[in-house]
Queue: 2 jobs
Job 1
Amino acid sequence: MTAPTFTPRVFSGIKPSGGLTLGNYLGAIKRWVDMQGQMESVYCVVDLHAITVWQDPAELRDGTREIAAGMIASGIDPSKSILFNQSQVSAHAELGWIFNCVSRVGWMNRMTQFKDKAGSNAEKVSLGLYAYPSLMAADILLYHATHVPVGEDQKQHVELTRDIASKFNHDFGEAFFPLTEPVIDGPATRVMNLRDGTKKMSKSGESDMERINMLDDADTLVKKFKKAKTDPEPLPDNLDDLAGRAEARNLIDIYAALDDRTPEAVITEYAGAGWGKFKPALADLSVAKLAPISTEMKRLMNDPAEIDRTLAQGAQKAREIANPVLERTYDIVGLLRG
Ligand code: AQP
């Protein structure tokens, strides 16, 4: 099997399972904006993933628009990148089914996100939640994406995507799908919960105080950082001395990512400072960086029809890439086409 060369292409997505968080912004969108223009980019609001847990239909529609508005307000330019919502391109679900037949149950059983989300309730969660990584592999491989910029939490799913591509290529004797690289870099690949530095900041976490929402106003940002859990110690002069201080390390990393600096540079500047100095500085920085984005998000969300048009145009462009890949996949598998 000779491996073809694949044109460099980025794919990534966010599910509309709640409002956009600072974790989604720093771990994903901000880095997508940096990559935009370096290679062809496809960005997706993955609404079919959102419904793996119950979503109120009206909230799902609004949430899909909010995520799209957040991406555009952050700098994703729909004339430079393809931006759409997943359910408008039916090839995602179709390739997802093929990959359900390629994936092994044992692979799915190893997925830590499923274990975390299902918890002790595994018998009662949806079959879709269990099969989610197959659909995610389809999202990526439908575009023959070579690079997937994601937060640390998605690393295992991108590795599974490589396993699925490899098995498909091997089973059918044709190097049709690329072995996609996860791109996980920068200081904020895992933004943690503000009340518990051992847990990831999530859209669907229980308390609003544990996360920064991209639509939080300035007063809320100040309040949330002021109340963020820390410890009584001042900041040391090096990162090694933050070992075992998860909440402190998280706030340093957030500061660094927002300010496009390294965590080392931030700790050097604030060495010896107490939280009474660092937290207000972090709150000011977050207001300066996030307020323009939330203002623009609100402006865009005032015109939902325009967001819908943008997503529909993006879906049209996405289909032009996705449909031939799906057709060829059906062909390789032996599914008869008229
Ligand atoms: N806390 C985080 N730190 C860094 N990156 C993060 N991402 C999410 N949370 C963090 C990255 O954002 C992208 C989109 O993620 P997603 O919305 O599709 O799924 P998720 O990772 O399950 O996000 P949430 O916020 O935790 O959603 P819920 O609570 O609904 O499950 C991905 O690149 C992800 O790595």
Job 2
Amino acid sequence: MTKLLLRALAGETLPTPPIWMMRQAGRYLPEYMATRAQAGDFLSLCYNPDLATEVTLQPIRRFGFDAAILFADILLVPQALGADLWFVQGEGPRLSTISDKTGLEALKPVEAIHDTLSPIYETVRRLAGALPQETTLIGFAGAPWTVATYMIAGRGTPDQAPAHALKRDEPLIFDALIERLTEATIAYLSAQIDSGAEVVKLFDSWAGSLEGDDFDRYSLTPMRQIITSLKSTHPSVPIIAFPRGGGDRYAEAHAATGADCIALDQSVDADWAAAHVQINGCVQGNLAPEHMVTGGDALVSETRRIARAFSGGPHIFNLGHGITPDADPENVALMIETLRSG
Ligand code: CP3
């Protein structure tokens, strides 16, 4: 019996979709807060294989999701390339910035990333041995554009303006950074797969701010390069791509990236996506995360509507973005119960 998530990724239409949630291990869970306190802070948690394994397993124990996602962060790759990284409680990530040739040349070579990231591979190995046999282990990385936006601005930005400015003013430096991140991401995901990840996902959270040809050039193309490379060395490992905010351009995403599954954010209408994206292969999504806060009848009816819209093809049920810290775990249980009771 093959795992449900892998069956959907192989193109099978299932009576009940496999279910997991972005940020399923996180601050809405009291047990996560307790383990994070034990680790001291978020980054210490990411680099502690014992505790990172524990928090990855917490939502599996509590809810019985069909997949576990490795507990780590997309910004560990810039850190492994030599950037300074820290998290400001209640605000988010801060990094040293890259804006010129000197900054680019100061980055470590791709081979050096494993020195920093080896504890992450150890977490993957432990998870591969600890998960229930029906649960699929997902590894992940940020896509080059999204990771570059943080490396250039030094933090999250509403419109990614510093990265757009570098792309316009210093195209050679910008392209070299994207290329370095593409190579590092291939090395990082290959190592996760070699350690036991059964599926990998690329998060391009800020793809939506790329306009015109830039969407193809800086979101879809680097993802395709990563996927082509991983497929050549690990042909049987399915890959999920998440060009968040892609809008109508989601229709070309399977063909343009070569991904086995395209993750949809909640701004995409499910009926439209069934007709224009799911016809090309498996899709994942796309319940608005707000329902995990508000719950009630709206949660039940939206969950049913999305499951129905995608019921004619391969589908993985998920939120359109990560669950937020103010979510109620009871609402997560209600979503799962709604799906599994038909
Ligand atoms: O999904 C999971 O459960 C797996 C672990 C995971 C985390 N971050 C843990 C995390 C994954 C897959 C990510 C991806 C990630 N990280 C993305 C892409 C997905 C997305 O949300 O768009 C991005 C952009 C980041 C960078 C990042 N990490 C930001 C901007 C922040 C601060 C914002 C926030 O939610 O607090 C983080 C912190 C972070 N990453 C937390 C967790 C559980 C919260 C940290 C804490 O415990 O204080």
